[in-house]
Amino acid sequence: MKHTKLIAMATLLLLGASGAVGQSLGDAARAARKNKPESTSATRHYDNDNLPTNDGLSVVGPPPGGDASSAAPKTAAANSPADHQKAADEWKDKLDKQREKIESLNHELDLEQREYRLRAAAMYADAGNRLRNAVQWDKDDAQYKSDVDGKQKALEAARQELSEMQEQARKAGLTEKDQEKESNSPDKR
Question: What mean pLDDT comes out for the span 21-49?
Answer without folding.
Answer: 74
